Amino acid sequence: MRSLAYSSLFGMGLLGQQSAAESMYNPQKSSVTTFNTKNFEKQVTLNREKGISVVQYYKASEENSTMDKGQFEKFGIEQKKMLRVGALDCEEFASMCDKEGITEYPTYRVYPPFPVPPQDHKSGATELNTDVLKKMAYKHIGNRVIDITSQNHDVFKSDNPGKPKVLLFTDKAKTPIVYRALSTYFDKTLEFGLVKKEDEALVKKYKVSKFPHFLILKPGEKLPITYKGDDFSYSELFEFINIYSETFVFE
Fold this sequence. Notes:
The chain has 251 residues and is of the alpha/beta class. The chain has ten helices and ten strands. It has helices at 2-22, 40-45, 63-66, 69-78, 94-99, 130-138, 153-158, 177-185, 200-205, 234-244, and strands spanning 33-34, 53-58, 84-89, 107-111, 119-122, 145-148, 165-170, 191-196, 213-217, 225-226. The strands form two sheets. Strands 1-3-2-4-5 form a five-stranded mixed sheet. Strands 6-8-7-9-10 form a five-stranded mixed sheet.
């Protein structure tokens, strides 16, 4: 009976290893996309006109790769929709990794919009510092946000009358990276303005009582459409814009 029990446990162990080898990230639950021969080119190498990808090239059998899983999962959640975050198993898809010139594991590669070449970060045996990946990726995010004041507000609002306008009221000195990314993504369909807290006339005009304050001005609508949520992440604001600006972008 011990022998049978041992065999059963041993078999289950092998099955578990086999399942783990299929993907380090759960395709149904993880914010990290599992790349393979069917989706890699479409989502990464041939999709660099707009958006930035961060890809982890790993070997599931190597500790240096697996120890970064938690950090990279968290990175994927934080960057949801703003960056395309994914991973490729170089044991299962060795030819793809060879084609990309990957020789060390894990290698984290940032694919910025063309014509900027990809850039690598190799963490080796050191725990992954996702701030490094953010710095590498964020520097490629454009900025189409216009600084709006009481002096240019009316011109901004009336210019290109067919385009909805988006306004962010902020108490920060710099334009938030999330807002910059949104302005770049929707550059052809929306116009983005930034109002500083210090512009008391506009703050009063729009009845802003707390910061940040996010709203959409739609042609034909008398009142602005105000975002009521507390989550100012890229993914949440993206969905709000997609619904209320009637741009209807499908990813």
